[in-house]
Amino acid sequence: MNKVPLTKIGADKMREELKKLKNEDRPRIIADIAEARAHGDLKENAEYHAAREEQGFTEARIKDFEGKLSNAQIIDITQIEHTGKVIFGTTLLLSDEDTGEKLTYQIVGEDEASIKDNRISFNSPIARALIGKMEGDIATVTTPGGNREFEVIEVRHV
């Protein structure tokens, strides 16, 4: 199986979520199932069916996180020499060449991406256009609305 890149922070968050699923959610769901069973007829017991459904969802998430962490290539960007080059894990200050708007993004793994937190997947069109660029370079990104150009103002290793 291929290695999946994750930032150190993303891997730590995933481990924390996995720990919560195993140590808090799983025991609570087991208790909910036991309590629902005690109510009698399982065929018409909505609490039982809801708890079993939640159990299936939780076990699938546990398996997913364990698989991703076992195949993760964890990259600690703070340990990589700063060269001004855009690479996985770097945080970028960009300038939209058309509007002059300043944007900040961090390039992360797919499971860490969150546009509201300004973290974009390394597989996204904008990240693919930016990776390998240096501070001062212009990257052209093909979007559904046409090409957009971004200048790389600063590359940070945080």
Q: Helicity level, as a percent range?
A: 25-40%
Write the CATH fold name of the largest domain: Chitinase A, domain 3
Within CATH, the superfamily of the largest domain carries the name: Transcription elongation factor, GreA/GreB, C-terminal domain
Low-confidence stretches: none
Helix count, per DSSP? 3
Cα radius of gyration in angstroms: 22 Å
Count of domains: 2
The largest pleated sheet is described as: 5 strands, mixed
Descriptive overview:
The chain has 158 residues and is an alpha/beta fold. It has two domains: 4-75, Helix Hairpins (Orthogonal Bundle), CATH 1.10.287; 77-156, Transcription elongation factor, GreA/GreB, C-terminal domain (Chitinase A, domain 3). It contains three helices and seven strands, in the order E-H-H-E-E-E-E-H-E-E. The strands form two sheets. It has a five-stranded mixed β-sheet. A two-stranded parallel sheet has the order 1-2. The radius of gyration is 22 Å and the shape is elongated.
SSE map:
Elements: E1 4-7, H1 8-37, H2 46-70, E2 72-75, E3 91-96, E4 102-108, E5 119-121, H3 125-130, E6 138-143, E7 146-156
Parallel strand pairs: 1-2, 4-5
Antiparallel strand pairs: 3-4, 3-7, 6-7
Task: Name a few traits of the molecule.
158 residues, alpha/beta, Helix Hairpins, Chitinase A, domain 3, 5-stranded mixed β-sheet, 7 strands, elongated
Short structural summary:
This protein is α/β, with parallel strands linked by helices. The protein contains three helices and seven strands; from the N terminus they run E-H-H-E-E-E-E-H-E-E. It is elongated, with a radius of gyration of 22 Å.
